[in-house]
Amino acid sequence: MSDLRFIQLTAWLNDHFSMDLSPILISGDASVRRYFRVFINHVSYIVVDSPPKQIVLQQFIDIANIYAQKGINVPEVIAKDTQNGFLLLTDLGDISLFSILKSDNVEYYYKTALKVLSHITKVKTTEQGDLPLYDRAFIQQELDIFTEWLLRCHLSIVLNDEQHQMLLVTFEYLIKNALEQPHVGMHRDYHCRNIMVKNNQLHVIDFQDAVIGPITYDVVSLLRDCYIRWPDNVVEHLMNDHYQQSHECGNISNTVSLAQYRRWFDLMGMQRHIKAVGIFARLHHRDKKSAYLADIPLTLGYIRDIALSYPELAAFGSWVDLALIPHFMDTVETVI
Question: Has this prediction a pTM greater than 0.90?
Fold first, then answer.
């Protein structure tokens, strides 16, 4: 590997440890970040390469510090060069929760992840001040990714007036649902690929985009994961656990019924999944990361199923079912 950033990163590591090192690329993710592993005296570390013009590392550092103070297991920041976008972290290993989940252990691990989530909800500020607010403009911007990247760019769909109005009504319904919920500290990408398992404990990663937002966002991200779908009865049971947990830790009042909470949960999941399929299409077209296209059918399935279960969203659900999913599946052979 001879790219300029790798040369800069290696020079920084060599200076920090006062020895010649050879970082090994282990992965990238759904952004421009890259991750390397380096071994020093038989101890492994993770090195993050995060171009500073695209991603600000300081929020990751700030949130890592406050999460650790709250008892949340996160990688420790050992060294940093925020000007150039380099971090040296403790190594949490290669075992993600996604890699070990099975039907006979999913409830155990997800209940543990929900307990971790109760601590995450309490984090609304760092030393730099309050976390960003997941407000109307923020939500609308995310929903627009669906329109721009999945509909227009990937599927070349030109909406007619009726479809355009249907989309506006659907998006407004989802935005109001998000805004009416109690707002808590929100990880914003809390799912089984962003939870690592080490020494039989769960460790949280990829939290740099944390905000203050709706109470059901992270839990539906976990339970209705874009990468794996669990039976409805399993999701229902765990959702009920989170509902009770939210009462017990004071995140929702005793006046909030289970039916109200379930509506928040369902519609919040729809909003997140609509955003996600747009991002998956954008990763393919803009960032040349085509593997995420394989996750679109499952995610569209969530959108269809939830929309069809709410009369107010039935028209949108039917359109996703009868038009959007078949149209996407027609493109699969040519793009994957």
Answer: yes
